[in-house]
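This is your field. Pick holes in the following sequence-structure pair:
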Amino acid sequence: MISKEIAKTLEDKLRRDTSSLKELGITPTLAILSLADEESSAGLESYLKSIRRKAKSIGIEVIHNSSSSSRELLETLDKLSSSENVNGILILKPLPDELIREIPHRIPPLKDIECISLENMGLLFSGHPRFTPPTPEGVMKLLRGWDIPLEGKRVVVIGRSLNVGRPLALMLLSENATVTIAHSRTIDLTALSREADILVSAVGKPEFIREEHIKEGAIVIDLGVNSVNGRLVGDVHLESVIEVASLVTPVKGGVGPLTTLSLLENVLKATKIQLQIKS
């Protein structure tokens, strides 16, 4: 099953779930916050458009608040946190360091659809997640849709961010994969990556992963979103890697659609939790 088919199956399910909620008079609502001076960052505009488009198709309402300063964003976050009409809150990156440190303490866990609050991260790392982060969940949905067995497989995740690399490694471990997290300080990354049955790149360097990084027949998942001369480019140099790997995800139509749908799936889950509706 290709990525598009996996996404369509999930989208159809979410549409049915939303219809059931609307029959009860409930319209799931997602609030998106961003900083105005960061909205032209690589991939952000595309991601926002994707969320709006898919949410409309599914029946989820989206409210977007663009703030001119960190202080204004936090004030808006506090208002939305207490609003009964908002079920999920998404804060778009990039963000300044002070916001990255503050937001996990401010976002209400029951509306934290990215799993960035300390409570939700703790639940995830203890093996009892309330929500799973959208991008790692998109990767897991893709692997399940491809019928890729993970037990005993050697997986290398390049990138150690709190919202992608680390939670993805944990989710892969829960499926009994053997996982290594690599990063910018890893010694001899090429040799390490060549040991991987599955290589996941979230390093944020355009076309960094090339043929020499890949074991013959490996699966390569590209999570990179980089802007090069006005176009989106992944972490993987597709032309060289495709000669060696058995499967490679493209930048467009790869994990991205499943990330968006996993985010919206969390909005529906959050709505049900808040209103104490059993699935």
Notes: The chain has a mean pLDDT of 93.
